[in-house]
Amino acid sequence: MKLDASVFGNHEHDRDIVHLQKMIGASNFKWVVSNYNTISPLKSGSKSTKPFTLIKRNGVNIGIVGMNTSQTVEQVFPGNLSYTESNQKRDIVISDKVTGVEKAAKQARAAGADVVIALIHWGWNQNSNGKATGELIDYAAQLKSVDAIYGGHSHQTFASVVGNKLTAQARNSGQEYLRTQICVDTAANKVIGASAEHVKKADVPTTLIDATTAQIVAGYKTQLNAKLDVKIGAVSAVFPRGGTPPVERLVDMFDLHIHIDEIPTWFRYYTIG
Predict the structure, then answer these.
(1) Which of the following CATH numbers is that of domain 5-203: 3.40.30.10, 3.60.21.10, 3.40.50.2300, 3.40.50.620?
(2) What is residue 272's predicted lDDT score, i.e. its pLDDT?
(3) How much is the pTM?
């Protein structure tokens, strides 16, 4: 399955900007995000992040815009959104507004897009009294300049029509993917219909494993096993999972002190269990 474009989510910032730049340089697809205060540091060599991109398929120009979750700053290590420019430390700020996404969608349309797709790293959360709720739903209603919206982040399955636009989400970790059909009147630059189908992993049991990818994964497993298989100690007690332990357990205290030693913080809240 070939990738054409990817939008940043919180996990793209699990490591610092320098590492992210290396990943951008190693990518063979386009990176897009439309709600950052700056994308100037998100580049490597000739490859750089854009507020939108255009992909041509069978005579149809497809515009892609993107929105990352503003929760990212709370979900990654301090400093992971920081970079240095002109000898000054600066920070990437992720907006929780659709203003940048709307602007990018209009730019994509002006650049020739027949249809504009928004990839947003927000998800559907729950069914509340028969009504779908979550940031994906809220933002889909606000986005007026796009034709279809794909969400993420909450790791759930969703497909519906929100604000007259196809709005869908697939689960994480390759459990499924979305197969979408969008009918476009290219003369009028108008979407006249769309449908979405969730294709689950179990639905494609005959899919052949890509040999190159399997070789890469095997290499990572070998490296990882060499680290995880190192014996660091032994215990003889029983440590059942779940429930609320009535007392502090040695293994919990051991884990706590590892955190204290390795992750310096001003304030620490630790839940045993």
Answers:
(1) 3.60.21.10
(2) 57
(3) 0.78
